[in-house]
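Example 9 (inverse folding). The structure is encoded as follows.
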């Protein structure tokens, strides 16, 4: 059975874009234990989101896209919280400003004491996300996009599906 941290691990591997990586480095960059990363990789392999090719673990992009678009919001639904300060996610993330028009309502944020955006708390897929995205812009972009799929409006989700498809084709 997949756990939310497994998706974060898979997305981190995806964000490496064919760069060599080691489980220990992934664990350090995500702020997880090495055993947690190893278990996540095993579960993702069993689920078909990752596969072995020439002794390397690589994402199965078609399966990942299908799961993120059609299953993620049901398996790991978004949990909205109180207004707080944090890191903008979903449609409010900086790199989506051109795709989405700002509204008067509070944007979704991952709660973070060092965050610069006031919004409503959106529980991240896993507790390490706010710190991990500070170190990896590509990871941030993918996870913010995934949050649109988890809790966006119909039009936002349609745009996010296309952005995800394009991003997966490019990696």
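The amino acid assigned to each position is listed next.
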């Amino acid at each position: 059975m997949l756990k939310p941290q497994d998706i974060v691990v898979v997305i981190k591997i995806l964000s490496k874009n064919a760069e060599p990586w080691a489980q220990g480095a992934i664990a350090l960059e995500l702020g997880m234990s090495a055993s947690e990363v190893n278990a996540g990789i095993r579960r993702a392999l069993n689920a078909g989101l990752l596969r072995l090719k020439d002794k390397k673990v690589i994402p199965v992009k078609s399966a990942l896209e299908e799961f993120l678009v059609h299953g993620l919001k049901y398996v790991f639904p978004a949990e909205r919280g109180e207004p707080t300060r944090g890191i903008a996610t979903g449609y409010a993330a900086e790199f989506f400003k051109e795709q989405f028009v700002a509204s008067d309502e509070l944007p979704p944020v991952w709660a973070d004491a060092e965050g610069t955006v006031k919004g409503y708390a959106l529980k991240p897929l896993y507790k390490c996300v706010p710190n991990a995205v500070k170190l990896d812009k590509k990871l941030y972009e993918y996870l913010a996009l995934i949050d649109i799929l988890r809790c966006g409006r119909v039009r936002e989700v349609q745009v996010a599906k296309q952005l995800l498809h394009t991003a997966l084709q490019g990696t």
